[in-house]
Amino acid sequence: MFRNLCGTNAYRNIVVLTTFWDRVSMEEGLMREEQLKSTFFGDIVTGGARFMRHDRSSQLSALQVIAHILMLAPTNLQIQEEIRIENRILEDTSAGLVLREEVERVLEKHGQELASLGKEIDTMKQSNESLKKELEEEREELQQHLARWESEKAELKRGLDNSLKSREQLVDQYRSVDKVRSATLEILQVKVEEDQKTSEMMVARMNEEATVHRVYNTWNNEDDLIQFTYSDNYPPYMKTIPVDDRKNPLSIFNFASFAETTALLFIQPNLLWSKLRNLAPDQMMLDKSMRSIEAHNFRLHTEARLRAKTDPNARDMYFSKNVGLRRDWYTDTVFGQQQFTGTNPTTITLASSRWRDEFMSVSHAQGRTDVTKLLTESSGNIYVQDYSDYRPTVGLSPEDDIVCQGRYGCSAVALFHLEPEGQLHPLAIVPDYKDSMGESVAILNRRIASDVKGNEYEDWPWRYAKMCVQVSDWLRHEVAIHLVNTHLVEEVIIVAAYRCLGPNHIIFRLLEPHWSTTLSLNKSARETLVPKIIVGMIGLNATQAFAFVKAAYERFDWKGLYVPNDLRSRGFPVESLNEPKYHNYAYARNISQMWNIIRKFVARVLESEYVGGDREVLSDVSIVDFCDEVRARNGGELTSFPEVKTLDELIDCVTMCIHIAAPQHTAVNYLQQYYQTFVPNKPSALHTPLPKSLLDLRSFTEEDVLAALPLKQPRDWLLMAQVPYLLSFEVPEDSTILHYAETTSSSRSTLDIIRTAAGALKADLETFIHTVEQHSDDLDDQETPYLVLDPSKTAISILM
Which residues contact 411 (CB under 8 A, 6 or more apart)? Predict the structure, then answer.
């Protein structure tokens, strides 16, 4: 029956697992195993089945069995082929025929017995009446058996029909589980390898000098390997990652968090294990209030802390503090401060006359003379977060909604006043800008200044508008500022450097330590993070999301984003950052000084290398080729990359390469868990349509704000909370920029001019630690320190 049900092709997917090897000698165990192979399991072994052993004293053998099973390619059962391809009915399948033959054999047997008894009755009519009665009873019993067999035959047919329907339902679940199987296969394989190679890994980690500078023995053999490849969805990237740069996702991400995120992608919410499912608010348990969500967040944080006391490995996304634990998380003060020290402190910009005029028209229309006066008298202190270009970027018209599968995006514009004392106060918000103010809904803050009192907690229309700004910023931050402007831009630099600079070129030696994990991490982003996670969290479909990615890359302004240039263009002159008005902009104060420290280090090295100055730089063919490769249409396609002709330009360019990989990526990556795990603070999408008029928006209640959150979509909620946690694990101590300076300055294998400069870099970074602490102490907000750019915490490369 098994052969006819599954088919011989399924034999290769069979594992015969033997255990209790600890109870017999190896010799006896091998003998018994061979007997099983040659006798009882002979057919399936011949067909490809595999014998495996489980040593009950070791987890490794169990993981090997699971890994083997998950690696097996799925195969259709014979009964599936016969029903779905050959269009047989269940009774006509091989398994059905075997079963039918068995039933018919039994029926025939009982029929023969019944006929025989009938003859006996005919010949014994004159016999003893008691014997006749006994035979009649036996005949009746046989007739009952026959009826039961007929009934069971009919029931079998009904059961087989029902099983077909059940199988179709199970197929869908199987497909989901199969996706998880495929996604977790690599996890299990790595787990096995890690158990086998622990000692080797420890030795590798201890060999710090080997990590300071890698020697590429196969450099000349990699010319064909190191190439740009192209996609409609992403900027140019490395076609094949060199072996030395390949990293498995488990060596990058936390194992438990990676597995949980994978599960969220493929498993239906009702099938998630309870520990994970319970991290999302339960709509049935909540009293439909924001307070209950805050209480749920506090409870999860408290429970996570208690669990970690007994099991440090039991940490989850709620172990660390998040902004939702603050009593004032929803206020204008916290919202404004996030523009300066949140996950995206890089796009707040001095408002142009266009935006001041447009919001002036709104204040006139709504009779807010106080706003009109402020916009007129303080024009030099009005700042904007501008997301108004989303629709044209992704090919939507002004009247089109930004929506995908019930998730709504928005194209917000937020206006702020930088007050003389340094508080950034939100004045007005357009939740979803549609080409003009006349076509859009705009709301003005009831509170004209930060010191004006009011019931901020129950100002639901204004709270909803701020949430729309956060949704808009989620997209720009994750896709443009984080993914494109750091990860993908840096990859273009890496590929061009591989192709144009030899391993001993001074620029390569300066940049190579800042590439750890970047290529493998980017590969995971292109293959999994963006198409399977990000696209499923936002209001854009895949085509629109990829258009957003490509547009961000095309707009990247290399020299314009040099820190001094960028800050000045956004209305924050570097020379004025220590004035009281800017004391809350700790990101700007820190990143500008970090830029100077890195530039000083780079200048020390390059001035020693290019003693001939500009002329020697201009004559370095490798640098010319490198710059051309980054810009070329058949290269990196980063058209804003400069033609380096002077030593000063080269120093700036190399500084930018390090800046992108180290402090800039750190600044926009490692605060995600704090600000985004508490979903109401910064959701990735809304789950109800946006209001079409100011009247609609002004009528918003707490219920409307809650409805816009994914309270009824637990998987969406969990992804919004889990992904920031996955991407925000603390930087290992041996992967910080300070550790790089320490090891580089003390390593004998380091080039002398780099080792000397690294010694000065180390001293500068150690001093800068205290500067970062001081800038954090200067903040008005002392509840959330801003220490992300502390050199002892700043990653040396794009690690996450």
Answer: 387, 388, 389, 390, 391, 402, 432, 433, 434, 472
Residue reference for tokens 């090897």:
21
Cβ of 66: how many Cβ atoms within 10 Å? Answer: 17
pLDDT digits (tens, 9 = 90+) for 12-69: 888 888 888 777 888 888 888 888 888 878 888 888 888 888 876 666 777 777 777 7
Say if 367 falls within a structural domain. yes
> Which string of DSSP letters, residue by residue, matches 579-597?
SGGGTT-HHHHHHHHHHHH
Q: Give residues with Cβ within 8 angstroms of 772, minimum separation 6.
A: 590, 786, 787, 789, 790, 791
CATH number for the domain spanning 364: value is 3.10.450
Interaxial angle between packed helices 129-196 and 94-123, expressed in degrees from 0 to 180 and rounded to the nearest 10: 160
Identify which of 49, 54, 26 has the alpha carbon closest to the alpha carbon of residue 36: 49
Instruction: Render pLDDT for 227-265 as a digit per residue (tens, 0 to 9).
Output: 999 999 999 999 988 877 776 554 554 444 444 444 444
Tell me how crowded residue 474 is: count the other CB atoms within 10 A of its CB. Answer: 23
* Domain coverage including residue 122: 2-148
CA quadruple 623, 625, 628, 632: dihedral sign: negative
Owner of token pair 């599954």: 6
Q: Please say which residue of 462, 482, 512 terminates a domain.
A: 462
CA separation for the pair 676, 653 (Å, rounded):
33
Task: For residue 551, give both structure tokens.
Answer: 């547009």
pLDDT in tens, 655-701: 999 999 999 999 999 899 999 999 999 999 999 999 999 999 999 99
Domain boundary among the residues 96, 116, 148 is at 148
DSSP string, 101-152: HHHHHHHHHHHHHHHHHHHHHHHTTTS-HHHHHHHHHHHHHHHHHHHHHHHH
Number of domains in the chain: 2
Q: What is the DSSP letter of 793?
A: T
Measure the CA–CA gap between 278 and 300, rounded to whole angstroms: 9
- 593 part of a folded domain: no
From edge to edge, which strands make up the β-sheet containing 382-386? 349-350, 382-386, 413-418, 424-430, 443-444
Give the pLDDT score at 84: 75
H-helix or E-strand spanning residue 724: helix 714-726
Please give the Cα distance from 633 to 471 (Å, whole number). Answer: 34
What region does 395 belong to: left with phi over 0, alpha with psi -120 to 50, or beta? left
Q: What is the DSSP letter of 424?
A: E
pTM of the model: 0.74
DSSP 356-383: HHHHHHHHHHTT-HHHHHHHHHTGGGEE
Distance, CA of 332 to CA of 334 (rounded, Å):
6
422 lies in some domain = yes
Residue 66: inside a domain, yes or no?
Answer: yes
